[in-house]
Amino acid sequence: MNPQSSTATAEHHSPTAETAAPTDRLVVEEGRWITNWQPENAEFWEGPGRPTARRNLIWSVFCEFLGFAVWQLWSVTVVFLPLVGFDLTTSEQFWLVSLPPLVGATLRVPYSFMVAMIGGRNWTIISALLLLIPTVAMALTLGNPETPNWALFAIAAAAGFGGGNFSSSMANITYFYPAREKGAALGVNAAGGNLGVAVAQFTVPIVVTAFAFGALQPNLPAAGLFWIPFILLAAWGARKYMHNLSHAKNDLKGSLSALKEKHLWIISLIYIGTFGSFMGFGSVFPTLINIQFPEFSSIQVLGAALSLAFLGPLVGSLARPYGGKLADRIGGARVTITSFLAMAGVTAAVVLTLSMANFWIYLLLFLALFTLTGVANGSSYRMIPVVFKLSVDPADRVGHERKASSALGLIGSIGAYGGFAIPQILRISNESTGSFDIAFWVFAAGYIALAGLTWFVYMRPGTVFARANV
């Protein structure tokens, strides 16, 4: 809860100074609560405001980066489980990579409210320390092949704590920046987090083989142990350098109002196809390579294993900012539609070229698919504030801003369920037909349908959205 007393501050300011709301210095109370945060005040922002916001952004990005890394640990760890004696069916492996996205998506809504309830700094510390649960559990159990499957599923579900970090981190940074710089700050925050997926998939194969110390089997407990010092560093940094903002408030009314807005649900469907595809394919790509091209599941480099699966999330993360920039130039709906149609073509090409049994073509197609998900991710996210601005009474400026702000968090939560849906569709296809072909045709059809939906609602001639080039 926000501080109730006017305790002496770290800068030794008095209650009188707090009341006067000085613009040349921070008023910081016990527990690092800032009580005079004024980002829209130019004098304050160019004085103590900007460096304070930047410092909070840096540690927020680091904590969110670790959240994404832990969220996706099972996506790459699962391919090593059979090598050390775990008896898992293909279906069970798909469940292990599906559970973290499912739990993470579900946690995003409550996480987004925690910043205003107990403070951004305080919640960042707690959410970082929660990452110790799945990582310590992995370290304690993955060395024993007799670990029951239910325990593996529970630990995989706990990795979903990392997925919730995105919403709270984005909500926290929103309060720190003025409107004119909010978009850039949120873009940096999101991109930094997304990179955690690629880094986890790059790092884990190297760590579990390098720390095997000559043993024939990978050292799977190292997949969890490796992250523990970084998590502790993140919690320490958040405690020492971040701040709570006393003016941060939850907008429950805005959230309830946004839920009644049909465009929230339309864009959520679109976002399942963009961000959900990035998370879903990111979760399952190492497993797909392991099943269809086992000889390329890992490549030995200087005695350590390297999985090329990390390249997919890497290019997707790097492409996201360009999707937003392209949307600013030619319109978010246009970029999103083009991306969906291209994604449909690429997924169809994956099926049509599988008979060639060429890994490099397979990898190239998936890199193209990840790039397109990143572009569409950025462009569809850019559409949200514009759509909500056009869908309410023009005189109600505050109303559209509140709805748009609430919608950003809700859409991000709903879109993350794509990370669960894609592995499950692939699992069902494989169980029913013995191949993934049907799943990829379903994805292609879904992307075409989403392109049609985006065009019909946001680019159809004569609509207010088409005239505004949403």
Helix content: over 70%
Q: In order across it, which strands form the biggest sheet?
A: 1-2-3
- For CATH, the homologous superfamily of the largest domain is named as MFS general substrate transporter like domains
DSSP strand count: 5
- Please, what is the average pLDDT? 87
* Overall geometry: globular
The number of domains? 2
Low-confidence runs: 1-19
Helix tally equals 20
CA(first)-CA(last) distance:
39 Å
Strand-residue fraction? under 5%
Which CATH-level-2 architecture of the largest domain?
Up-down Bundle
Largest sheet descriptor: 3 strands, mixed
- Oligomer designation: single chain
Query: Within the CATH hierarchy, at the fold level, what is the topology of the largest domain?
Result: Growth Hormone, Chain: A
Q: What's the CATH C level of the largest domain?
A: Mainly Alpha
CA gyration radius, whole angstroms:
23 Å
GO molecular function, one term: nitrate transmembrane transporter activity
Membrane topology: Multi-pass membrane protein
Subcellular location: Membrane
GO cellular component, one term: membrane
Describe this protein's structure.
This protein has 2 domains: 214 residues, Growth Hormone, Chain: A (Up-down Bundle); 218 residues, Growth Hormone, Chain: A (Up-down Bundle). The longest helix is centred in the middle third of the chain and has 32 residues. The protein has 470 residues and is mostly helical. The strands form 2 sheets. Strands 1-2-3 form a 3-stranded mixed sheet. A two-stranded antiparallel sheet has the order 4-5. A hairpin with a 3-residue loop joins strand 1 and strand 2. The protein is built from 20 helices and 5 strands. The radius of gyration is 23 Å and the shape is globular.
